[in-house]
Amino acid sequence: MKLYEQAARTLRQRIDHGVYRVGDRLPSIRALCRELEISVSTAQEAYRRLEEAALVEARPKSGYYVIPREVPTVLPSVTRPAQRPLDVSQWDHVLALVDMAPDEDVLMLGRGVPDLEAATLKPLSRLLATLHRRGGAHDLSYDRLSGSRELRERIVRLATGSGCLLHPDDVLITTGCQEALSIAIRTLAAPGDVVAVDSPSFYGTMQILKANGLKALEIPTDPELGISLEALELALEQWPIRAIQVTPTCNNPLGYTMPESRKRALVALAQRFDVAIIEDDIYGDLSFATPRPKTLKAFDDDGRVLLCSGFSKTLGPGLRVGWIAPGRYRDQVTHMKYVSTGASATLPQLAVAEFIAKGHYERHLREMIRQYQRHRDVLLRLVKRHFSADTGISYPQGGFLMWLELPAGVDCLRLNERLAASRVRIAPGSLFSASGKYRHCLRLNYALPLTATVAEAIRRVGEVATDMVAEAIEHPLADSQR
Amino acid sequence: MKLYEQAARTLRQRIDHGVYRVGDRLPSIRALCRELEISVSTAQEAYRRLEEAALVEARPKSGYYVIPREVPTVLPSVTRPAQRPLDVSQWDHVLALVDMAPDEDVLMLGRGVPDLEAATLKPLSRLLATLHRRGGAHDLSYDRLSGSRELRERIVRLATGSGCLLHPDDVLITTGCQEALSIAIRTLAAPGDVVAVDSPSFYGTMQILKANGLKALEIPTDPELGISLEALELALEQWPIRAIQVTPTCNNPLGYTMPESRKRALVALAQRFDVAIIEDDIYGDLSFATPRPKTLKAFDDDGRVLLCSGFSKTLGPGLRVGWIAPGRYRDQVTHMKYVSTGASATLPQLAVAEFIAKGHYERHLREMIRQYQRHRDVLLRLVKRHFSADTGISYPQGGFLMWLELPAGVDCLRLNERLAASRVRIAPGSLFSASGKYRHCLRLNYALPLTATVAEAIRRVGEVATDMVAEAIEHPLADSQR
Ligand SMILES: Cc1ncc(COP(=O)(O)O)c(C=O)c1O
Ligand SMILES: Cc1ncc(COP(=O)(O)O)c(C=O)c1O
C-alpha cells in the first residue's frame, strides 16, 4: 500500500470509529505530517482521497471537516413474496433487457455491466492481444475440460481472501457465471422440483429454473440482512426443497451483504435439512468492506455449497470467464459442464490468469471499489433529490447496483415505456420475481461515471416516476383498468 | 479459381467419369498446353496437384498415369445396435479422452481436432490480436444474445452453399457446437424421452442425452449411406421418439455423407411422423465433394430441422464459436441459450466474421480439404499395411476421422491401455455407443501431417491390435474371464 493510502486509511478508521465525528475539523496538513511522519504532498494526497470518497470536505482557509455520510432516508421494505412454489414467468421482459444490440443509442441505466473504460483494465486488452497474436496450436485447441490450471490456481489463492480453502481441482472454469449457475441447478434438481431463492433474485437464475421446469420458492428478504432465515426454516419444513440459491454478498439487486453470523446460520440450516446451497458470489470481490466478506462456502464443512462466480463484474462480461467450486458435486458438475459447452475458450482464461498474477487484478479492484463507492453516494444524492421522499432506496455494500422501491401502484414496466422517448431505460423490478412482483421497484446501475448526461437521465426517471406516483394516487385503479 | 486448379479439375473430372482409366497414360504436358491453352508451368502445376491427391503418378521418361485409388478393401459392417431405447453410459471413458491436459506428452491419434498449424489459419490469429488490442468497452461487454449480426450474416451466406435459405435472425451464435446440440436437445425432450440417433454416434451428443435423463435409440447405420431409413421408420412406429439426431454429412466417426436422395427421404420421414431433426453439420464444410453436399435443412420446408454447426473443425475448437438455425423452435432455443451461458463471447465472433469476409475462410477450407483428402489416402495405405486384412476401414467423404472395425473380440479399451507405454492413444469405439458396443472399433485422426512419428505410431497400433486379434482367437474367453 502506498504511504498516502496508509494515511488515508488511518484517518478513515478514526472516522469510522467515531474519533472524529460529523462536523469535526480534522488535523491540519502540518499536524498530520508531524504525527504520521509523512511529507506534505503525501498528506495532501491522503485528504484528496478522503474527499473523493465523500468522507470529508475542504473548507477554504479553515481545513478539512468530516461531512455527513450519504445514507438513504428510507430503505426498501422487507419483501413479502408468494408463500408457495411458483413457476417462473417474465421471460419476455428479461429478453427485452438482455437482447439489446450493444450499440443502440439508448442509455441503459439498469444493466449489470461494470465500468469497462477503466484505465486499470487496459493491461487486460494488451494481454489478450499478445496471447492471440502468438496463435499457437494449443491455444486454438480444446482446453482441459476443467479449465486452465494457471487460472484455477489463481482463483484458489484469491478465494483464501473470502475464507475458502480450495484446491485447484475443486474448481472448474465455466463460460460465465451463468453457466456455473445453470449446471449447478441442473445437477441438483429435476423438473417439478422446488428451489428456494432470496427475493428479489437475479433474473438469470430465475430463468434457469423456468427452462428446467423447476419451481421457485421466493423467501422474504431483508434489504440489509438478506434472506430471512426464519422464513427459510419454515419453508424447509413445509416444502420439499432441493436447493437454496442465494447471492449473499453484494446482492444483485439489493446490494446488501449478509452479516457473517447469518451466513454461518444459513449453512447450518442447510445442513440440518440436508439441502445444497448454490451461492452466487459474482459481485463479492467488489465489496466496499476490507477485507472482503467471507462466502457461505467458508463455513461449508461438508461440501454442500456450490460456489459460483466469475470475472464478468470485475473485469468484463464479454470475456465469458466464470467458475464454480462444486464441493461434493464435482463429478456430476463436471459431466454437466462437458455436455453444456465442452471445454471453455482457452485464451481468455490465460489472459485473466496473467492479469491476476501480475497484480493488475488487485490494483483494478482497489480502483473500482473506490469508484463504485463514490458513485453510490452520488447516485444516492441524485435519487433523494429527484424521487419522491417515500422512495425506498437500497444502501449497497458493494458492487454497482441500486434498488429503488416506489410507492405501490407505480408500474415500472410502464415507466420504461414512458422513458423510451428520452432514450433511457431502467431494469423493472418485476424481472426479479418469479411471478412479476416488484413492479413498483427498479434497478439502477452506478458503474459508469455519473456524467451530466447520466445525471440528467436520473432526473428524468425521477420526474416520470413522480408523475406516475401522482397518477396512481389520483386514479388508484388505472392499472387494473388497462 | 487459379488456372492450374481449373486444369487439374478438368483432368480430375475425366478420371472420375472414366474417360481415363486406371493405368491409362494422360495427355503429355505439351498436349495439355495445346488443348487447354495454358502455359507449360500451369500444366506442370496441375499435374503436381493430381499427384498430391494420389490420383496420378509420374513415370520417368514416359508421362503421367492414372493410378488405382486407395480404397478400403473391407468396409466396416452395417451396425446392429440394441433394438430398444437405452440409458447412455460410457462417461468415464469419454472423460478420459476429453479431459487430457493438452500438453501431455501423448500422441492423441483419436481426437476430433483439426490441423491448427496450417498457414492459411494465421490471419485468424492476427485478426484476433488486432481486435483484442482495440479493447473497447463494447467488446468487453455483453453481446446480443443471438450473437454478432456480422457473423450471422456471413453464416447465412455460407449456408446458401449447402442449399439453405436462412435469414440472419434464423441463426443464434453458441459457445461451440456442443452448446447448440445441448440446447436443441433440451428444447425438444424431457427426462425419460427417447431420441433416435445414428450409430455409432458422436459421444458428446450421447452424453447430452445422459445428462438430461433421455434414452438413446440407436438406429442401424450403413458406413456409406448413413442411418437406415428402413430401421428408423420401424422405430418411429414402435417407440415414442421425440427427436432424431444425426450427423449426415462427413459423419463423425464413420466419414460417410448420406446421398441427397436419402437426406430428402429422411426429412420426409420426420414430417410423416411429425418429429424434429437435430442435424449436426460441424464437418460439412470439409466435404471432399464440390460443391459441398446439401444439409437436411435444405429439404426442410416446415422448420422441423434444427441445424447445429460451428467453426471448431474448420478453424479451431478453442474459439468456441458455434451456431444453430433452430427453425420453428427459435423462441424456445433462444431461452435455452440465455439460461445456458447468456450471450457468447464477443470478439471471437467478430474475428471469425472478418476471417470469412476477407476470403480467408474459403482459402483455408480449400487448403484443408486438399490436405485431408491426401492424408486420408495415406492413412488408408498405412492401415492396410499394418492391420490385419480383415480390418474394416471407413472411406471418409470429408473431415479428418477414420473408423476401423477390428475382428470381434478385440477390446479397444484394452488396446488403449497397452498403447500407454508407447505414449499413443486412440479413441475406443465404445464411446460412440450408448451401451459400450463397438469395443472392437476405434477412431483415428488424420488431420495432422502424417510424419514419421505418426506413421510409426500407426504401425504400433496395428501391431498391438494384430497381437490382440491373435490372442482373441487363441483365448476366445479371455475377455469375459477378466
Ligand atoms: C448475480 C449474478 N449472477 C450471475 C450473473 C451472470 O454472470 P455472467 O455474465 O458471468 O454469466 C449476473 C450477471 O448479470 C449476476 O448479476
Ligand atoms: C460431430 C460433432 N459435433 C459436435 C462437436 C462439438 O463441437 P464444438 O467443439 O464446437 O462444441 C464435435 C466435436 O468433437 C463433433 O465431432
From TrEMBL, chains A, B:
<protein>
    <submittedName>
        <fullName>PLP-dependent aminotransferase family protein</fullName>
    </submittedName>
</protein>
<dbReference type="InterPro" id="IPR036388">
    <property type="entry name" value="WH-like_DNA-bd_sf"/>
</dbReference>
<keyword id="KW-0238">DNA-binding</keyword>
<dbReference type="Pfam" id="PF00155">
    <property type="entry name" value="Aminotran_1_2"/>
</dbReference>
<keyword id="KW-0032">Aminotransferase</keyword>
<dbReference type="InterPro" id="IPR015421">
    <property type="entry name" value="PyrdxlP-dep_Trfase_major"/>
</dbReference>
<keyword id="KW-0805">Transcription regulation</keyword>
<dbReference type="GO" id="GO:0008483">
    <property type="term" value="F:transaminase activity"/>
</dbReference>
<dbReference type="InterPro" id="IPR036390">
    <property type="entry name" value="WH_DNA-bd_sf"/>
</dbReference>
<keyword id="KW-0804">Transcription</keyword>
<keyword id="KW-0663">Pyridoxal phosphate</keyword>
<dbReference type="Pfam" id="PF00392">
    <property type="entry name" value="GntR"/>
</dbReference>
<dbReference type="InterPro" id="IPR015422">
    <property type="entry name" value="PyrdxlP-dep_Trfase_small"/>
</dbReference>
<keyword id="KW-0808">Transferase</keyword>
<dbReference type="InterPro" id="IPR004839">
    <property type="entry name" value="Aminotransferase_I/II_large"/>
</dbReference>
<dbReference type="InterPro" id="IPR015424">
    <property type="entry name" value="PyrdxlP-dep_Trfase"/>
</dbReference>
<comment type="similarity">
    <text>In the C-terminal section; belongs to the class-I pyridoxal-phosphate-dependent aminotransferase family.</text>
</comment>
<dbReference type="InterPro" id="IPR051446">
    <property type="entry name" value="HTH_trans_reg/aminotransferase"/>
</dbReference>
<feature type="domain" description="HTH gntR-type">
    <location>
        <begin position="1"/>
        <end position="69"/>
    </location>
</feature>
<dbReference type="InterPro" id="IPR000524">
    <property type="entry name" value="Tscrpt_reg_HTH_GntR"/>
</dbReference>
